[in-house]
């Protein structure tokens, strides 16, 4: 009886831990900022092509995505930074194609991050 009670408590605690962590992104804004920083010169129109460091950083970021919440977190971080840095949408939208990266959502300052699937 005592073993069943202990097992039940461990099971419930594990379940609560799992549920508490569901729906949270594993990717932080500081990681997104660090990986995307080399893209700023192109995204603001100061360079004619994205730097190699831009493409490799975004490729690493894309490979680290494990969930929809990760995609939403990346979108929110990028949108927040874009406003502060003077990013121009006409350049930003070109980055995935120029870097040959499949993002899985439209890259734009007007993207609604909450609708990303």
TrEMBL record:
GO molecular function: lipid binding
Boundaries of every Bifunctional inhibitor/plant lipid transfer protein/seed storage helical domain copy: 29-113
Cited function: Plant non-specific lipid-transfer proteins transfer phospholipids as well as galactolipids across membranes. May play a role in wax or cutin deposition in the cell walls of expanding epidermal cells and certain secretory tissues.
Family per similarity comment: Belongs to the plant LTP family.
Entry protein name: Non-specific lipid-transfer protein
Pfam families to which the protein is assigned, alphabetical: Tryp_alpha_amyl
Organism field: Actinidia rufa
Leader sequence segment: 1-25
Gene3D superfamilies reported in the protein's UniProt record: Plant lipid-transfer and hydrophobic proteins
PANTHER family, per database record: NON-SPECIFIC LIPID-TRANSFER PROTEIN 2-RELATED
InterPro entries recorded: Bifun_inhib/LTP/seed_sf (IPR036312), Bifunc_inhib/LTP/seed_store (IPR016140), Plant_nsLTP (IPR000528)
Keyword terms, alphabetized: Lipid-binding, Signal, Transport
SUPFAM superfamilies documented for this protein: Bifunctional inhibitor/lipid-transfer protein/seed storage 2S albumin
GO biological process entries: lipid transport
